[in-house]
């Protein structure tokens, strides 16, 4: 059985993430979405909130499981006996960080490889950070995140439901 992990912060999940999840889930028998718990970036959403949003967003994908992890990604992968990591590449600006991360992970555990999916052009500009910035100033985030996520983001900034 071919399995892979798509790791990330998902703070919050965006249409760009969902696109990568949908496409990569078709390439493998099982896809685990790994949600980082020990996040130094002080996430807006708790790990449980992020896991639950991802579960809702992927409920129609039969072979996708959402699991949080702490510590090193390669250790999480190894503990599930998974040797493939999936990351999305939006633009050249992502490349340097992603290359460093993939190479670091391979030094730590040479059995684990990272494969990259180019993000759907429709979502090439999209990031969770931008979603939060737009929402913070009461901007419209309906083009960026699923409907059920919208008010959860505004709520975090004390903005009344739309
Ligand atoms: O969505 P993000 O924030 O770009 O995802 C980054 C993530 C979670 C993949 C990365 O920070 C990670 O794997 N963190 C776990 C700690 C780790 O293994 N670090 C070594 C890789 S350089």
TrEMBL record:
GO biological process: coenzyme A biosynthetic process
Keyword vocabulary terms for this entry: ATP-binding, Coenzyme A biosynthesis, Cytoplasm, Magnesium, Nucleotide-binding, Nucleotidyltransferase, Transferase
UniProt pathway: Cofactor biosynthesis; coenzyme A biosynthesis; CoA from (R)-pantothenate: step 4/5
Occurrences of domain Cytidyltransferase-like (ranges): 5-133
Names of required cofactors: Mg(2+)
Cell location: Cytoplasm
Source domain of life: Bacteria
Catalytic activity, EC: 2.7.7.3
Entry's Gene Ontology cellular component terms: cytoplasm
Positions bearing the site annotation: Transition state stabilizer: 17
Record-listed substrate binding positions: 9, 41, 73, 87
GO molecular function: ATP binding; pantetheine-phosphate adenylyltransferase activity
Catalytic activity: (R)-4'-phosphopantetheine + ATP + H(+) = 3'-dephospho-CoA + diphosphate
Binding residues annotated for ATP, in chain numbering: 9-10, 17, 88-90, 98, 123-129
Cited InterPro entries: Cyt_trans-like, PPAT, Rossmann-like_a/b/a_fold
Assembly notes: Homohexamer.
Role summary: Reversibly transfers an adenylyl group from ATP to 4'-phosphopantetheine, yielding dephospho-CoA (dPCoA) and pyrophosphate.
Family recorded in the similarity comment: Belongs to the bacterial CoaD family.
PANTHER family assigned: PHOSPHOPANTETHEINE ADENYLYLTRANSFERASE
Protein name: Phosphopantetheine adenylyltransferase
Species for this entry: [Clostridium] fimetarium
Lineage start: Bacteria, Bacillati, Bacillota, Clostridia, Lachnospirales
């Amino acid at each position: 059985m071919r399995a892979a992990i798509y790791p990330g912060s998902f703070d919050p999940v965006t249409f760009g993430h969902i696109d990568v999840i949908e496409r990569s889930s078709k390439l493998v028998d099982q896809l685990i979405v790994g949600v980082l718990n020990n996040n130094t970036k002080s996430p807006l959403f708790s790990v449980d909130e992020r896991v639950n949003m991802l579960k809702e967003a992927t409920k129609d994908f039969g072979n996708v499981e959402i699991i949080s992890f702490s510590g090193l990604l390669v250790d999480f992968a190894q503990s599930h006996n998974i040797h493939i990591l999936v990351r999305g590449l939006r633009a050249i600006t992502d490349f340097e960080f992603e290359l460093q991360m993939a190479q670091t992970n391979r030094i730590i555990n040479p059995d684990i490889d990272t494969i990259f999916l180019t993000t759907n052009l429709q979502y090439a500009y999209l990031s969770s950070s931008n979603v939060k910035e737009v929402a913070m100033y009461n901007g419209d985030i309906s083009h960026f995140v699923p409907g059920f996520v919208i008010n959860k983001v505004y709520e975090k900034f004390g903005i009344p439901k739309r």
